[in-house]
Structure formats: structure tokens, C-alpha cells
Amino acid sequence: MLLRRFTKHITDQNWFAVSLDVIVVIVGIFLGLQVQNWYEAQADRELEKVYLQRLLDDADASIAALGHNITLGETRIEAIDRAYQLMFNHQITEDNREEFSNYFNDHKGFSIMDVYLTTIDELVASGQVTLIQSNEIREATGLLRKEYDVADRSQQREAAALVRLFVDINELIKLDEMGKVILNPLADLNGDGIILRKFRMILGLQRQFHVYNIRIYNYTKEYWEKVSEELDKH
Q: How many Å separate Cα 23 from the centre of its chain?
């Protein structure tokens, strides 16, 4: 209909009508594009909301896991320190052998940082980070990922060192079939310089593990608060 009318106006050399037809077409295209852009923007905002919720859920899960690791780390450090003090002060006796054995056995293991990065990695890999409109959230997301990487590399190095120390300690301190430390003679443990030095190294590495877990916990909690605040705006 519009094309037929436009052709007729040209044939009749009705240039005013032709101009109006052109304007109508241009305005129609412009409005169509505006409507399409609006729908696309709405779809992006809905997708942004989905990603923000997923980021919040991941951060929530990371906070819970890190909190658990922090509690385990505190218990482990306390046990190692207590075992070290008993040896350093020459206080290991047959009477507290079971107590010392429990402390000694608790030194084994470490709490590697446990975090959930699925959504952050997906946003980066897909190039959809720009869906997040807030510059603060985008910057905080990048910083958090960088902090995770730094902490993870450090903990991997410390974990390897701890494993070597655990092997050394197990060769120096013998256990009976019940898992209790064999105290024969007592001088093998009380004040032994080599064992004390290795326990000091284990204690230092475990504390470093603990520091990183606390640091990432605090970063993640701050990130959770920022994402939660941004999500509330939607």
C-alpha cells in the first residue's frame, strides 16, 4: 500500500507527498529500532539480575566454606602449638601420652581455600562481564578473582611444604597400633631440636594458611555485601 502510494506520488511528481512518504518511512524505521533496543535492554537487565543472583549465591557458598576452614584451622593451630609447648617444656610423660598423641595427630592435614568461582569464570570466559552495569561490581569481581589466584598459588606452595614436613615428622615420631605416640625413651621427644624445628615450621605454615583463609573470607564477605546492595536496586 505504501509502496504503491509512493510510486504514484513520484509518477505525479508530487514531491511534497514524496517527502512526507520518506519521512514516514524514516520515522517508522527509527521507532522500530528504538522499540527493538528497548526490548534488548530489558533482556540484558533481566540477564544481569540473574548473574547478580548467581554471584551472590556463589559468594554465600564461599563464605560458608571458608568459615568452616577457618574454624578447622584454629583448632589445628591450637593442637600443634600445644604439642610443641609440651615438647619444648619437656612435659611429655606417660600420663599425658594420649593427650600429646591427639595433639600430634591433629597436626596432619591443612585447610585449602574453598571458594566458588563458577559464575565469575563464566562471565569472563563468555565476555558478558559488561552485562553488569555497576563499575564498582565489575572492578570488585576482577579484584576478587585476582585475590583468589594469589592466595591459591601461595597455598599450593605451602601445602607441598607441609606434606614434606608431615613425612619427615612421621619418620621421627613413631606411633603404636592404637595411633598413640611411642615414648621410649622420653628424651626422643622432650626438647628434641630437629622435631621442634619441624613443628615450628609446620606451625608457621598452618598459620599462613589460616591468614589467607581469613583474608579471602573478608574479601568475599565485602563482595557479597556489594552484590547484595546492587541486586536490591533491581
A: 56
Decide: 179 and 43 in contact? Cβ < 8 Å: no
Look up cell 533482556; give the residue.
43
Which pTM does this prediction carry?
0.74
pLDDT tens column, 115-128: 899 999 998 888 88
Residue with cell 561490581: 137
pLDDT, tens digit, 9 for 90 and up, residues 73-100: 898 888 888 888 877 777 777 777 777 7
Measured CA to CA, the distance from residue 69 to residue 228 in angstroms comes to 24
Residues in the chain: 234
**Residue 170 · residue 181 · CB < 8 Å:** no
Q: HSE of 186 in the Cβ direction (CA atoms, 13 Å)?
A: 14
> Quick one: pLDDT at residue 162?
85
CA distance 36 to 44: 12
Q: Long-range contacts: 131-135, Cβ < 8 Å, 24+?
A: 131/44, 131/47, 131/48, 131/51, 132/48, 132/51, 132/52, 133/48, 134/230
User: What torsion do the CA atoms of 164, 167, 172, 178 make, to the nearest 10 degrees?
Assistant: 150
CA 95 to each of CA 34, 123, 176, 187, 190: distance values in angstroms, whole numbers, following the listed order: 84, 59, 16, 15, 14
pLDDT in tens, 131-188: 888 889 999 998 999 999 999 998 888 888 888 888 887 777 766 666 566 655 444 5
